[in-house]
Design brief:
Layout lengths: L9 H13 L1 H40 L4 E4 L5 E2 L1 H8 L6 E9 L9 E6 L13 H4 L3 H9 L3 E5 H6 L7 E6 L2 E11 L4 H6 L3 E5 H8 L4 E2 L1 E4 L6 H10 L5 E4 H11 L1 H32 L1 H9 L4 H45 L12 H28 L8 H30 L6 H37 L2 H12 L1 H39 L4 E4 L14 H8 L4 E12 L6 E6 L4 H4 L2 E4 L3 H9 L3 E4 H6 L7 E7 L2 E11 L9 E4 H7 L7 E6 L5 H12 L6 E4 H15 L1 H28 L1 H9 L4 H43 L10 H27 L2 H5 L3
Parallel strand pairs: 4-8, 5-7, 14-19, 16-18
Antiparallel strand pairs: 1-10, 1-11, 2-9, 3-4, 3-10, 5-8, 6-7, 12-20, 12-21, 13-14, 13-20, 15-18, 16-19, 17-18
Helix pairs in contact: 1-13, 2-11, 2-13, 2-14, 2-26, 11-14, 11-18, 11-26, 13-14, 15-16, 16-17, 16-18, 16-28, 17-28, 18-26, 18-28, 18-29, 26-29, 28-29
Length: 858
């Protein structure tokens, strides 16, 4: 009768722990690799979660329990609409709201949402004015209604900036400074409300209208309607004028949240790549540990241990490494998360919408995710080495040649598998789908496929060098490539791991340089003005602000100004969600755009725009899945829902959400809005733009605080935002390369330490200490050279995928490929430096050991 198989028991962990503690450097390098990989995954996950949570909290703070909203044109919703709803005697709650972003020097100059509400209608929606729930004194409520400029802020916000009840603050609204007074502090009882109020300034609806200059106007009316009550919706629609739109709050919030989904997915994929490199490191190091103890495992087999127990011994070691590495990685991820939150938030503010993240959110799901990914990836990486240790017969365990023979056979199998995975990845990428997941799946397939082909290339490369050295080189030149081939079972994994990290570095760098080149060329085409005037800041959510009429009068009368082009930038509603719309009166704007498709010539299309058509940007067309050769776009106007024909799709890199262009006069026909958001000045010849900008700044500053920049400064500011946007990508790329650097150093270090006996034999046969140094550094240098050589075409291929597939699916941008030599040179230099550094310590060890001692080394 067969004995029952033994499963995990304490001695397996003790055996593994003893080995790990007796090889501290190898253990440290394994732990370091998984720690760095897990820390990046955790840090990016925390940043994404914190940004998402901040968005949800700020939305919840403003929307409360609202189910539907009534909005209107950018000019605002007449408050008579609210009066009409109340007079109709409908049974569900309604509340008027004025909401606008403001900034205050006393509150750090951060973007804050000014929320104007009616205290008598608020209770069903938001509980901030409920003194029982928020510890708000009744006297503060009286001041809130009676004191001019009265506002409420949270206790946390006041403490952070050293303010108290009664403090005088200044609110900057539309470039104008408005005085306000903090009449009370809101102290929410629950944590969610507390965090939601961190970027909110609450005021009475009438005060908000005065502060924002929207007398008689609202931004929206909040409603709480019964779920799926079509009759209630129809009854409301009958009360609304043509310029009012009724929509569920989920429609607008979902559209805004969806804007950042691709950005967050890209960051997650890049962070997971660092973990993939870390997994290669774990696999490589566990393979080394198995190879070094083949004789030990053979002895244990002869003493009665089963294959299952040997397998579990190795897996137990990996589990311990994964446990330690994941724990340290989570701790490091929490530290890196703080910086990641800042970088991610800044990018969202530059590209998408205003978001203030005051604190990092640490959900337990992120911690468990990091721990699970670390442990699973580590144990998975150890499965094959564990199987190798368990499957070798005791007699063969003492024969090193058996391992290399098996490795040679596996290389041939890896070629077939690599080609299959590579072709599968290419096939997935060629699927005509907007799916970003498919795009990344195909990209990983291409990368792993080439990694599987790397051992065969390494063998071919080294054999070629050996043949060349046999005719023209010395003994060491022949010996170094032969040494790499003889240890291919271990060297190939280190080379593949370094190759992956370097190819990603090349691909991402080329993508960023191509993007930058495309943006510069795009700006050269579209920025035809000499001086630009607009509201402070660059965020698109602030574009409903208007330039004061007296400022425009002053600009138009300035000497040396040939033409003033006006722009109104607004966000309008559509059945597909909010749409960014730019209406201008530049007579040459049609010719200044770069088109993906245009109906006729650019100026013919512009004449159609003057007659009521639209130009839409490529990101908007791709986001809404519009045909790229003409269609129509439905927008809610003051006259109701209107369909506008599309006569051109233009390239645009100013935002990932995209937008549309309309003729200014046409815009004013459909929307009752005379505001102007920005102006571009075309100067007469030989007029100095810097001087005009300085004069304008001095002349306009008493009227309104605006941003006045000459063309050159606007370009510089735009490129600064661009570089800031890719700061998080650069940081991830650097850390991923660091993981690979650690991996190749550990792999090569372990390899050289394992070969101490062989190196000692070379000493006995006559190699000098200097020749030993040269041999070891040549061997490691060749490994680095192979990794760098394979990384170059792989990196170029990844750049093509990132530029033409991933970026287009993520953000709707078509980029022009721009090749620079620097990324290739840097990658080759990094691979050689990493490899040579890995050989320094073993070479030093060999130079200090007596040959006889080296021969006895086991």
């Amino acid at each position: 009768m067969q004995p029952a198989p033994r499963v995990f028991s304490g001695y397996q962990f003790r055996f593994g722990w003893r080995y790990l503690t007796r090889t501290p450097w190898q253990t440290l390098l394994m732990v370091l690799g998984i720690m760095l990989g897990v820390s990046l995954v955790v840090a990016i996950d925390l940043a994404n979660e914190s940004a998402s949570k901040a968005f949800d909290l700020s939305t919840e703070a403003v929307a409360g329990r609202t189910t539907h909203i009534i909005t209107s044109s950018p000019a605002g919703l007449a408050d008579e609409v609210y009066v009409r709803i109340k007079q109709a005697g409908l049974s569900y709650p309604a509340a008027p709201v004025v909401s606008q972003y403001v900034a205050s020097p006393q509150l750090g100059g951060l973007p804050m949402q000014l929320l104007g509400v009616d205290p008598f209608s608020e209770q069903p929606f938001r509980s901030y004015l409920n003194s029982g729930e928020q510890s708000l004194p009744a006297s503060a409520l009286v001041d809130f209604l009676t004191v001019p400029g009265a506002v409420l802020i949270s206790t946390d916000l006041a403490n952070r900036f050293g303010l108290s009840a009664g403090a005088e603050i200044s609110l900057e609204v539309g470039g104008q400074a408005r005085p306000a007074r903090v009449v009370g502090l809101i102290d929410p009882r629950d944590d969610l409300s507390r965090r939601g109020l961190n970027s909110l300034i609450l005021t009475d609806i009438a005060t908000a209208q005065e502060l924002t200059g929207q007398l008689g106007l609202l931004d929206r009316v909040d409603l709480i309607l019964p779920q799926d009550d079509a009759a209630a919706v129809d009854a409301l629609q009958q009360l609304l004028p043509p310029n009012a739109v009724l929509m569920p709050t989920s429609a607008r919030q979902g559209a805004v949240s969806q804007m950042t989904a691709a950005f967050r997915t890209n960051l997650t994929a890049l962070s997971l790549l660092a973990l993939v490199v870390g997994v290669f490191l774990i696999y490589n190091t566990m393979t080394f540990s198995v190879v070094r103890r083949r004789a030990v495992f053979g002895t244990l087999r002869t003493l009665g241990l089963t294959r299952q127990e040997i397998f579990l011994l190795v897996v137990a070691e990996a589990f311990l490494v994964g446990l330690i590495g994941s724990g340290l990685g989570i701790g490091l991820g929490l530290l890196l998360g703080q910086g990641s939150v800042r970088l991610v938030t800044r990018t969202i503010n530059d590209l998408f919408f205003t978001l203030t993240v005051q604190e990092m959110v640490v959900p337990m799901i992120s911690i468990w995710k990091g721990a699970l990914i670390g442990l699973v990836s580590t144990v998975t990486a150890a499965v094959f080495p564990a199987w190798e240790a368990a499957s070798v017969p005791p007699r063969e365990s003492l024969m090193r040649s058996q391992l290399e023979q098996r490795a040679q056979k596996m290389i041939r199998s890896a070629v077939g598998l690599g080609l299959a995975v590579l072709l599968l990845g290419v096939a997935i990428l060629l699927i005509p789908s907007p799916s970003l997941i498919l795009g990344f799946g195909g990209t990983f397939g291409v990368t792993i496929g080439i990694a599987l082909l790397t051992p065969a290339f390494t063998q071919l490369f080294m054999q070629t060098l050996y043949r060349l050295a046999s005719t023209k080189g010395g003994v060491l030149a022949r010996l170094a490539p032969q040494q790499v081939i003889s240890s291919l079972s271990r060297t190939s994994i280190a080379i593949a791991a370094l190759m992956i990290a370097l190819s990603v570095a090349i691909g991402v760098t080329l993508m960023i340089s191509s993007f930058r080149y495309t943006v510069v060329a795009w700006m050269d085409q579209i920025l035809s003005g000499d001086v630009y005037i607009g509201p402070p800041g660059s965020n698109l959510t602030l574009t409903n602000l208007s330039i004061e009429p007296e400022v425009l009068t002053a600009v138009g009368s300035l000497p040396g100004v040939e033409r003033v082009d006006l722009l109104r930038s607004v966000t309008v509603d559509s059945p597909q969600g909010p749409i960014f719309l730019g209406a201008n009166n530049n007579p040459l704007d049609g010719a200044e755009q770069i088109y993906l498709w245009v109906d006729g010539s650019p100026m013919e299309a512009w004449e159609k725009v003057k007659a009521g058509a639209l130009l839409v940007s490529e990101p908007l067309a791709r986001r809404l899945d519009l045909p790229l050769n003409g269609d129509a776009l439905d927008l809610y106007t003051d006259q109701g829902l209107r369909s506008f024909p599309i006569v051109g799709v233009y390239y645009d890199y100013s935002s990932a959400q995209g937008g549309a262009i309309m003729w200014l006069e046409q815009y004013r026909q459909y929307w009752n809005d005379q505001g102007i958001s920005a102006a571009a000045l075309k100067l007469e010849q030989d007029v100095d733009a810097d001087q005009v900008a300085a004069e304008l700044q001095n002349q306009i500053l008493p009227m309104q605080r605006l941003q006045i920049r000459p063309n050159r400064e606007l370009r510089s500011d735009t490129l600064e935002i661009f570089d800031r946007t890719f700061a998080i990508t650069g940081a991830l790329q650097l850390l991923t390369t660091l993981v690979a650097f650690v991996g190749v150093v550990s792999a090569m270090l372990s390899l050289q330490l394992e070969k101490q006996r062989q190196l000692g034999l070379f000493r006995v046969l006559g190699l000098t200490v200097r020749q030993m140094w040269r041999l070891i550094l040549m061997e490691t240098g060749l490994m680095g050279l192979v990794a760098g050589v394979v990384a170059m075409p792989t990196g170029y291929l990844l750049a093509l995928i990132l530029v033409y597939i991933i970026n287009r699916r993520s953000f709707g941008w078509t980029l022009q490929m721009h090749i620079l030599p620097e990324p290739f040179i840097q990658a080759l230099a990094v691979s050689l430096i990493a490899a040579l550094l890995a050989g320094l310590y073993p070479a030093w060890r060999v130079s200090r050991r007596v040959a006889a001692d080296a021969l006895r080394f086991e």
